[in-house]
Amino acid sequence: MRRIIxxxxxxxxxxxxxxxxxxxxxxxxxxLKEGFAFFxxxxxxxxxxxxxxYPTSDPxxxxxxxxxxxxxxxxxxxxxxAVPLGVMSALYISEIAPKGVRDVLKSFxxxxxxxxxxxxxxxxxxxxxxxxxxxxxxxTGLTAFSGSIMLAFMAMPxxxxxxxxxxxxxxxxxxxxALALGATRWQMIRxxxxxxxxxxxxxxxxxxxxxxxxxxxxxxxxxGNAAHIPNTIFExxxxxxxxxxxxxxxxxxxxxxxxxxxxxxxxxFIITFIVNFIADLLLGKSKK
Length: 288
Fold this sequence. Notes:
mainly alpha; two-stranded antiparallel sheet; 2 strands; globular
């Protein structure tokens, strides 16, 4: 009976893995079908390198360079904020905080991950946007900087939780050996714990970046939705995800604008795939 149960569970897990791959392939195929239908009518070079996104003008202009740059500004800004704070918070929770404090902080971090993005966007509009406008003396607080801060807040629970699990999984014998050889506690954390937990930390960072790249509601609410190439992070921007969410309901199904939004989704899918591929390479080097 035990062998039958083990065999059944193993096949169910295998089937779930196969289905996840099939679903991703189907999604990519659907995006590819709609995206290539758009490129039959619109030049792909003009689409990727065009600076102007005016889908309702005559003639319509579907340049997504400004959307790519806006997404890049927000993603890089959020990563710069979230990664150091997330990893340091994970180190504190796992290695420094007392047990009672550790349990409270870990529960609080996991609860933060459950906050809906629309709520975070609303809180950012009410509190962060006026503060940024006043603090930096800007015409508007709806900027890429505001979006980066809120997206960093959204990515941090993922980074902290998974990084803390990776750090906690480092064998205690590694730590004892370092301390027995005369290393200080900080040297032990920096040279042993961090290096041993690096594969898990890299995975946590990549999941956090994935959350930032794919976020829609928060960036649509607090980045200003201005489809232009910004000169600084303190200007309004528009991301690819926000464009799809804002305009999909206004398009005619099967029209050029409709297919252009699917082409944006295809570009976003390819960017995400490249990020995951790079993460896999870094993860492999880290394990070696």
